[in-house]
Amino acid sequence: MNNQSDHQTRIRKAFVMVSLFVLLGKFAGAAKEMAVAWRYGTSAYLDAYLFVFNYVSFPVSISLSIFSVTLIPLISKYVGTEKLTKFRSEFFTFTILYSLIVWFISYFSIEYILTHSTMSQQMLTYSIEILPDMSVLIPFACVSAYFSVLMMSNEKHYNTLYESIPPLFVIFVIIIPFDIVKNPLVFGTVVGFIVHLIVLYFWGMNKPNLKPSYTIQQTEMWRQLATNIGVVMVGQILMSTLSLIDQYYLARLDAGSVSSLSYASKLCALLLGLVATAINRSTLPVFSSMKPELEKDLIFNLLIRWTGIVFFLGLFFVVAVYFFGDLLVFILFERGAFDANATKNVADIFLILALQSPMHFVYLLISTYFVSIRRYDYVAFCSLLCVMSKVFSLEFLGFNTAELVAASTVLVYLVAFIFMIFFVVRDRS
Q1: What is the DSSP letter of 355?
Q2: Which of 32, 307, 330, 399 is 20 to 30 A (C-alpha) from 172?
Q3: Which of 128-137, 220-229, 325-334, 336-345 is predicted most confidently?
Q4: DSSP SS3 for 401
Q5: What is the tens place of the pLDDT at every residue in 314-326?
Q6: d(Cα 271, Cα 83) in Å, to the nearest integer?
Q7: All residues at 6 or more sequence positions from 413 whose CB lies less than 8 Å from its CB, including other chains
Q8: Are 282 and 310 in contact (CB under 8 A)?
Q9: What 3-state DSSP class applies to 229?
Q10: CA 247 to CA 339: how far, in whole Å?
């Protein structure tokens, strides 16, 4: 009972701390969206920026997810050992090489996608123009992802607070009264990610002694990592493609469709991401430090308790958006180039996206549990079902407006919710 109370306290403290840091970070993100809305509205240029940014962020988000779900359980197993110290340096070298390769592949892949897309000529011109500069953030952000995971594995959750650095730089650059660069939105984004990396290493890592290693000695840890990383990579790539699939269909629609869904998604992430990030970053280190063979009942009881908590938090979020969503969009965005018509479109999409909240939270919690006990196959299979439901709804059910594209995301997390509950029941029986 004392063990359960101790783990419950660790999760609760981490949940509150991460929630606070995420909230501060989301405020920075919301301020950035307000500044962007004031200057760019729902223009073709902003559509192009978001299109390119989402594609260059794709390998970064995958890297962060893969590093998190494979390294945190592995680090927890070897914490305090000399093996771990050497492995961290070896993985640092791997991350640097990996990030450069990903940068090279991503640049030419995105360029190919752009030149073979069906987007408008104006949006295509803007996208090709900003791609070289935007792609620079990939290697910096990939290395930052590794530093963030090291901090999370030590339950140093203030790395979440540092994620507000890129949007703060964007705000500074785009609101100054004179243009110091040709594309301030792009410049602020890239510089923000570079500064984020510097801050993580010198301040976040707490007097870092982490240096690249040019030899591989910890073959045992690398072997364990290699055993699971393939399945993890499949699952994370599949889930990360969901937003790219949305973009592919939205690019065919009227100008402003991409940015309208983006505004609504960012606003949804302001609140939804508060709980979602807290779930992942507070529970994964705790679940990973527990021993399933000895504490199976304890882990299951914690899982059930927190499933109920996060589900009702999701319901509360839906009710709040229903009553105050329009007002929130109006307060945050309606100024400058962002008019009343844009407010109505974004608010409608925001309400639809909010419906995913209870299912999304439960999916994240249960998938975190399965990751901690290394049942990556469950997570990967569920990811495949999510992508299939997304494509089915868009391609065969004719979800061909921005609102219906948002509704397809709700369907995705309904499928994820159902199958994660099924897997828990099956694993328990």
Answers
A1: T
A2: 330
A3: 128-137
A4: coil
A5: 999 899 988 988 8
A6: 40
A7: 356, 359, 360, 363, 386
A8: no
A9: helix
A10: 23
> Do residues 393 and 408 lie in contact, with contact meaning Cβ atoms separated by under 8 Å?
yes
From residue 46, how far is each of 26, 256, 293, 305, 338 by CA, in Å?
20, 8, 51, 43, 12
CA distance 369 to 371: 5
Place of tokens 């510097």: 198
* pLDDT for the residue numbered 239: 79
- Residues near 64 by Cβ (< 8 Å), separated by ≥ 6? 145, 148, 149
Per-residue pLDDT band for 17 (boundaries 50, 70, 90) equals low
Query: Can you read off the two tokens belonging to residue 285?
Result: 């280190």
Residue type, 85: T
Q: What is the pLDDT of residue 1?
A: 45
Q: Are the C-beta atoms of residues 56 and 135 closer than 8 Å to each other?
A: yes
Q: Taking all residues of the chain, what is their mean pLDDT, rounded to a whole number?
A: 80
Instruction: Copy the structure tokens of residue 191.
Output: 């510089």
Closest CA to 314 of 345, 279, 349: 279
CA-to-CA distance for 67 and 94, rounded, in angstroms?
12
Quick: pLDDT tens for 63-88. Answer: 888 888 788 778 877 777 778 888 88
Q: Which tokens belong to 273?
A: 């991401």
Most confident of 10-19, 272-281, 314-323, 334-343: 314-323
